[in-house]
Amino acid sequence: MHDALRRVFGFGSFRPDQQESVAALLDGRDLLAVMPTGGGKSLCYQLPAVMLPGTALVISPLISLMKDQVDGARANGIRAACLNSALPTEERAAVMRSLLDGELELLYVAPERFALDHFRELLGRLEISMAVIDEAHCISEWGHDFRPDYLTLSSIREIRPEIPVAAFTATATDRVRQDIAARLGLRDPLLVRASFDRPNLSYEIREKEGGDSQLVSILKEFRGQAGIVYRTSRKGVNDTAAMLARKGFRALPYHAGLSDEERRRNQDAFIRDEAEVVVATVAFGMGIDKSNVRFVIHADLPRSIESYYQETGRAGRDGADARCVMLFSQGDIPKVRFLIDSMLDEQERARALAALSKVVAFASSTLCRRRMLLDHFGERYPKENCASCDVCLGTREVTECTTEAKMLLSAVIRTDSRFGSGHIVDILVGADTKKIREFGHDRLAVYGAGKERGRVYWRRLIDELVARKVIARSEGLYPALYPLDGALGILREGQRVEMVRIAEKRREKPASGKVSADGLPADRELFDRLRALRKRLADEQGVPPYVVFSDRTLHEMASRKPSTPEAMLDIPGVGQAKLTRYAESFLEELRGRS
Ligand code: ADP
Ligand code: MG
Ligand code: ZN
User: Fold this and answer.
1) CB atoms < 10 A from the CB of 478, how many?
2) The pLDDT of residue 314
């Protein structure tokens, strides 16, 4: 296994969970693996596919993904091909021939093939090493992108009962996981659940200033590197993309309102490193395996923690440092509320509201971002300080607010936990409303006790205490605040509460990209030359640049400066096939002018 890992992929070690996944498949055992984006799922089946006799069948939902995977596998010298409706007849015939001749190690197909009788009949006759279902959550109606044609995949068990079936997904909920296992008829599968932590991503939330200059100055830190700017509305996308283009960035828009042709063109330009920034709505991202996305900026509030995780997850798939920046403004909340309030379906509205309040709590919290994200997925982050989020790096001002927290809890408790944030804040600031008079809340000791602080302060404190699980909001359309166990710690045990002001401060760490994956300062000028060479070779071969080598591999080359083929082979990501194909050009570049 380790030999093949080195020879084919050029990696010296497995990532956590890859090794047991590979071993299970080599043993002929079914597998259900949940790993985050960038976790290295492809290697889990590509490696055994190379080692086992026969062809591994890989079912993948999108043609663009398939093509990317095939390009990537071929670049590593794996005999891979795909069959789908987009393929010209001639090419399809050629793929069929090599398939029938047993020449393929990997065959990618779209799920709808399984509905075709002749394809199923063909599967019965070939030597198949295993069946792999990528993006397996598509088979579950509980998942976020259910695809009815995935249901036909259950027939693989009847056609080839003896081969192992492996399902891969980045969607972690138990319900989806059980659904996948049941629908595919997995038999005593090995269950692998990797951590959802993405250690190479840094998270930071900045107070949104409004206006263009903030975004422009952030993007300047990433000059020449690829990234995504997410915005909520199509208009926002168009405006921001146009503004950035005027300022000299190679920025392109992407949203569902553009023609198919324009979307495809913009996406391709991004994948081929020809546009550095895509400004997009959430419509962008699925079906993109580009591994050298170095930053993701949320210029508006994400709609949920899940989507924030998924969208930021598109950065740094190659394992090299990447940054996630969210621009947050309390002022954006009413805009989103307005959109939510206009939803017709009551359940949907309640769900969207709950998701929004979690995002707000996340953004305004003083707890480690990473810890909160993982907590959301039911995972405990073991370290006290992650050293790569704005909270842990201490770029924020902390203020003590224990007294205020006590006042707030008192207001909640004295009103029997029956009222929502708005009314509680009214009590604290001593507002004169009909509701206050009707309930006699102007007679409470806390009435008006917090009037030196504004409403915004109190709302932030509420979000903070919700995030810390001191209080919670009840379900439903008119959520009331109620105390949780954490409240006792503050009221009785003298626990302190601190709140953070989101401060705009310079990071001390240099922007990612100037630092190699292992933290060594890389030669930036050399890196840029290697990158230009990568782009040239990629264009010649009609593949995306990251298929030639990942950013991480280029960083390693730039810092270690190998001078012989043997030294080149030691660079992570340089396997036998890539050595043969590319080493000479890169060695020349490294030698020639460095
Ligand atoms: P996923 O499908 O889980 O999102 P991929 O299979 O696309 O992730 O892999 C993401 C990146 O991680 C790729 O650039 C891949 O080359 C790299 N990678 C995978 N396994 C390893 C490993 N053991 N060591 C170093 N890099 C790896
Ligand atoms: Mg994948
Ligand atoms: Zn942290």
Assistant:
1) 10
2) 94
